[in-house]
């Protein structure tokens, strides 16, 4: 069974390029933000550094999960993974922890934008994953109906003989 028609190599490649660029930008910007918050002299400097580090990790991990999913699909389209292997090992993690809205609000605007971009990318990949998986379930139902029809035909043939 081929992958759903809306999931094709061009879409996967475009999302992969987008995710790679986002991953690099997120890494660089959060690293710079860590340096900016260090030595600020604020009373809650330690808490702020921990919050920034947690959000950096969460955002980077979110993008990396998208990249892993996309890499698996690229490998499938290149013939390096069978569809069975992809279905078994190519899942996107469900219920990835959301960003803390209070922490995100406290971040500079460009960093907030990056966090929201990573969330949108993850949501888009999630929708593709859900559609791809539900298409498989629908196809499995068609296969089951075909098997039942074959079983009835064989049974009718043997009972007629």
TrEMBL record:
Stored Gene3D superfamilies: Protein of unknown function DUF1465
Pfam families: DUF1465 (PF07323)
Domain of life: Bacteria
UniProt protein name: Regulator of CtrA degradation
């Amino acid at each position: 069974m081929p992958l759903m028609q809306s999931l094709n190599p061009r879409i996967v490649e475009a999302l992969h390029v987008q995710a790679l660029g986002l991953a690099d930008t997120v890494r660089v910007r959060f690293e710079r933000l860590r340096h900016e918050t260090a030595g600020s002299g604020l009373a809650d400097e330690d808490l702020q550094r921990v919050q920034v580090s947690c959000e950096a990790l969460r955002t980077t991990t979110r993008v990396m999960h998208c990249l892993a999913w996309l890499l698996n699909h690229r490998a499938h389209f290149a013939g390096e993974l069978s569809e069975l292997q992809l279905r078994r090992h190519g899942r996107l993690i469900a219920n990835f922890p959301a960003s803390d809205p209070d922490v995100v609000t406290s971040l500079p605007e460009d960093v907030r934008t990056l966090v929201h971009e990573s969330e949108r990318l993850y949501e888009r990949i999630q929708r593709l994953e859900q559609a791809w998986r539900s298409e498989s379930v629908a196809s499995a139902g068609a296969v089951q109906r075909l098997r039942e029809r074959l079983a009835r035909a064989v049974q009718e043939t043997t009972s007629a003989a």
